[in-house]
Amino acid sequence: MVSTGRSTWRFAFRQTLPILAGFLFLGFTYGLYMHQEGFNFLYPTFMALTIFGGSVEFVIANLLTKAFDPWAVLAISLIINSRHVFYAIAMLRRYGHTGWRKPLLIFGMCDETFAINSSTRVPDGVDRVRFMTYVTVLNQLYWVGGAMLGGLFGGLMPVRIEGLSFVMTALFIVIFVNQLMRESSHVSSVAGVVLAIACLLLTGKQAFLPLSLVLVVVLFVMLDHGRWRHSVVR
After folding, report:
1. Count of alpha carbons within 13 Å of 32, Cβ hemisphere only?
2. Distance (Å, rounded) from C-alpha 210 to C-alpha 135?
3. pLDDT per residue as tens digits for the range 2-28
4. pTM of the model
5. Does some domain include residue 132?
6. What are its GO cellular component terms (predicted)?
7. 199 and 92 within one domain
């Protein structure tokens, strides 16, 4: 049991090393951005600990400097994080028999944690439930630690750095380009871009994200159903 726990921990840590580098940098940037907006390090630390949605945290940091509108915050948070509905559907089976760990796994499932827990092939000697738990906890610690360090370091900087709020946008652009270069078929990427632009033009920036996600899922279900029917006919 001890050997299994250690091998599971080592395997989870190795899988999250790329996330460690990215989250420390992004969390640090977020903490620095919060300080420049007038908040001490406790704000980014506790927001990173309880919200754990990087793009939402950048948005809320900006909203906290204005007249607070809780309904607007709720609506924006739901729109930005609506993709987690699809993550949850994909993870229903994997998280189905995780016992007391299930609330932690659900709360901590960010984009990167979902990517690792949903796609990693666990070798012999590694407990899958423990592995998913370790990945979830480690990724959250990386993010919270980076946010706290950024908030603390912000107090030592005598100058203001412009453009920090663009970090999350730049990250998603890099992820998209990397995925585009690695995939053999560009159907999913092209469909996502076309549908997102169409929904943005039709509905505006407030509602295009959940609508485009729903349309992408419907499109993929139709394509998958068509391939299944084609294979049955053959």
Report:
1. 20
2. 27
3. 456 788 899 999 999 888 888 888 888
4. 0.71
5. yes
6. plasma membrane
7. no
